[in-house]
Every structure is written in structure tokens, then in C-alpha cells.
Amino acid sequence: MIREAEKGKYVKLPTFLEQGFSDLKRDVIDKRICSLCGTCAAFCDKIKISENEPRPVLVEEYDTICGICYAFCPRTFLPLSEIEKRIFGEEERKRADGDVLGIYRGCYVVRSKKEDIIKRGQDGGAVTSLLAYALEEGIIDCAVITTSDNHWKPVTKVAKSYDELKEGAGTKYTIYPGVVGVKEAMEEGYANIGFVGLPCQIQGLRKVQTAEQPYEVGKERIKLLIGLFCMENFTEELLDFVKEKVGLDLERVKKFDIKGKELLVYDEEGKVHAIALDEIKAYESEGCSVCMDYTAELADISVGSVGSEDGWSTVFARTERGEEIVEGAVEKRYIEAKEMEEKGLGLIRRLEESKRKRF
Questions:
Q1: Structure pTM?
Q2: What's the CATH class of domain 2-77?
Q3: Reduced to 3 DSSP states, what percent helix, strand and coil does the chain have, rounded to the nearest 5?
Q4: To bridge 123 with a disulfide, which of 60, 226, 295, 313 should be the other Cys (CB 3.0-4.6 Å)?
Q5: What residue segments make up the domains of the chain, in order of their start?
């Protein structure tokens, strides 16, 4: 992956429009650094990612090289400093220099004030409540979220209502090309799309939004990006391992969580089954090995559990829109929020630095 942040240099995308899928295959897929974010498949009809083939593939050969797949992929090049300038502005970009947490206007400890969301959500239901507020206020008219089937396999959902948002609450720990849900939302005619996803998926969508390219891809319809903290993600084989390890049918699993050095599996009877993270290391996605972003630095709002007490979430409001949504959700009693203490920020910084050192 080419990272330009330290150089302050922006690679003009038209140069890369000469690169086609064969180049993406050579530089990303064959090098086994594809994050399976789904950005290429979301914006090119010739590329698909199927359950049987968990990597981007061409569904038909074609001669025209448009370069969209190569230009939008977060693993080909990432002109971070220029993307930050375009999203946050020059002054905000300067203010964040040297801070591994990226640019943010405020950092809070957040919990939902909606009891029905708290019962279904994770770490206080912050993400679901923020989306519910944005949906009710008309900031977005749908939210692309990742839910799961009854065996915990991820499924993209275009949520249009409060109840549909609740159905998707909770964290999923296996990789899925969630950005393809943005394509689905556009095809359904939505004009103000919200999206929740991992740092790599946020990077891909920010490249779409800030790209200098001649094609009409509907980027103006993407209105809100909520990013999730992520140290690494796992392949679908993890689910089979969990089933065998704890002797529990996945239909009986109520929730997954990662705390400290353990993967916690909660069953429907309230029992918690702990698996050491070292035991599931073999199932880490290969694409995670080149990622340096723990806190989804390019999102409007970033959310994670680290740094907050149990039952609460850490929330970074990064853009002006993100800050307005957090403040509005507090005012309308969707969430309650407290200022983050320096101790919590210090822990998040250490994990961010750890991820960068691994890269």
C-alpha cells in the first residue's frame, strides 16, 4: 500500500485511471492485502465478491480500462494528508499533526438513552442511537449497516427505520464487503446515505468522495460515515472454530465481544465462553496486516469500546457534521455523553501506536 501522508503529496487520480483490474489483481489481490472492503465491487458492475469466492473477481472480460477499481481501493495508494484537507480543512489538518488519534473536534463517553437499543446493542448502543437520531432528523434517509444471519454470518442491510436499525445492533467479527450496501442503497433511490463500517471501508469511501475522476458514481449521496475501532478482523472460518471450541451451536450465541486478550461468546442463557485471542490468530484476515488505522480516522464519527467503562462507548466527533449529530442526539435524548478522560485517551493512543508498529 502506498501511503502519502508523511510526504504531504497528493497523487492525482487521473494518473491511476490507466490502471485496470489486472493491476488491482497484481498489486492487491495477489499480494494478499485485499481488505475485502467491497469498494471496488460497489462502484464497478464488472466486479463481484461472492460467498464462494471471498475476493474481488471479474464477472466478464472487457476491454475498456476505466481505473475506478484501482483508484478507489484503499490498498493501492492512500493520499491521507490530502484527503484530510478536503474533509476537515487545512487548519484542522495542521492541528492534528503528530496526534496518532487523527483529527477530532470532541471525544466523549457515550451511552444510549433508549432502553430497547441498550438491550440489543453493544457497549451502550451508541452507534444505533446516533443513526436513529440522524434518520429521524432527516440527515440521512437510510443507513447501510452490517447485520448477520442466525449463524452469525455477516449480511449487509439498508436500514430505513428505527426497528430495522435495532435488528442490526451488535458487533460482528468476521470480514464482509460491507461497502456493496452503498450500491444497493443507491439502486433503491436513496439520496442521503449513512454508512457504518471498518477503517478500511471508510478509507475506500473517502477516496470515492475526494477523487478527481471523470465518472458519475453518486458520491454526493453519501452523507454520513461512522467508523468502528478495529485492531484486526477475522475470516469466516473463525465461526466454525468457535462452534467446535465451545461446543455451542451458533444459533444459540447471543453476542460476541473482545475484551482484553479474550474473545467472549455469550450464549442465550447468559453464560460467557472465553477464548484466548492467541487461539484465533490463525483466522486473522491477511488484509489487516497492512492497516495502520485503529480508530477510523477519516470518519465523521468514530466509535469503539476501548477507553470507556463497560456499557459505554468511546465516540470521536471528527467533522463538523459528526459533532452536530452527537450534540443533537444528546439534546434530543437519544444518548447521554460525558467528556472523555485523559486516561482513556492514553489507552487508545497506545493501541493505535501498537497497530502502527505492527504495520
A1: 0.91
A2: alpha beta
A3: 40, 20, 40
A4: 313
A5: 2-77
